Amino acid sequence: MKTICVTDSGMGGLSVCAELVKALKQARKGADIVYFNACYADDLGYNAIARRSGKIAMFDRALAGMEHHCRPDEILVACNTLSVLLEETAFAARRPEIARSIVDAAVALVRERVSPTERITVFGTETTTSENTYLKRLTDAGWSPSHIDQIACPGLQTSISNQDRVEEKVAAFTRDADKASWYLLACTHFGIRADAFNHPKILDPNRAMAQEACDRIAATGPITLNMVSRYRPTPNELTTWATLLDEPGTVAMLRGNRVDSTLF
Hints:
The protein has helices at residues 14-27, 52-70, 80-86, 90-94, 102-113, 126-131, 133-140, 156-162, 166-174, 188-192, 205-215, 235-244, 248-255, and strands spanning 3-8, 31-37, 74-77, 99-101, 120-124, 148-152, 182-186, 202-203, 223-229, 258-259. It is α/β, with parallel strands linked by helices. The longest helix is centred in the first third of the chain and has 19 residues, at 52-70. The protein starts with a strand and ends in a 5-residue tail after the last strand.
C-alpha cells in the first residue's frame, strides 16, 4: 500500500488530507496517509524564524524526519509557505521524485481552467504574496503580469482557525478585487472557507492537489490515517477543526494525534 505524507506548517493542510480521503473513497482506492505537522512549536511558526536560511534549514529537518519516521512514497507539501522553500532544501535535491508542492498543483489547476486572456487574483498570506511566487510562475506559464493581481490577507488564516468574523474579513480583502477575475486561494486555510469568498470563479488548490494524488494511486484497499506532531493540539484547535473538516476519518485522526518531540 502506498504511504503518503501530507505536511503543513500547522493545521491548514488537514483540508488537503480530508479532500484526499474523499477522493480515495470515491475512486475506491486505498493508501496509508500520515499527516505530519511540520510546525516546530505550538506557539511559533516559520514566520518567527528571522532568516530565510533558517526557515529552509528547519523545513529540511522536518522533511528528514518524515523520511525517517514515515518512510513515505510521496510527500504532499500542502502549504504555500513551505512550498516556496521546498526546492531550496537539501532533501528536495536528494529526493526530488517524492516531494510535491501545492504551488505546482495550483499552477496546473490555473493552466487547466483559465485562459491566458483572463485575469487572476491571488489571495495569500503576506509571505506568499511578497515572494511573488505565483506572479513568477504564472508569468512563466504564459499569463501577462498585467493580468495577475495579488492581495495579501494578513491574519485571515488565524480568523478561519478561530472562526472569528471570517465573512467580514474576507469581504474587506475582496472589496477592491476585480470581480470578473478568477480567485486563486493561495493558502490552505482559505480553501476550507471558499464559501466565504462568495465568488463564482474559485480556484481551490487543496482539492486539486488531493485529486492529483488520488489519480497517481492504482491500488484498491483500506485507507489508514495517522497524525504526528511535536506538540498536542489545543482543545480549541480540536473543536475548530472538527467543525471545519467535512470528513469524519480526518477528524478522528486529528483527535488521535501522536505527540513526539523527537520528530525533527
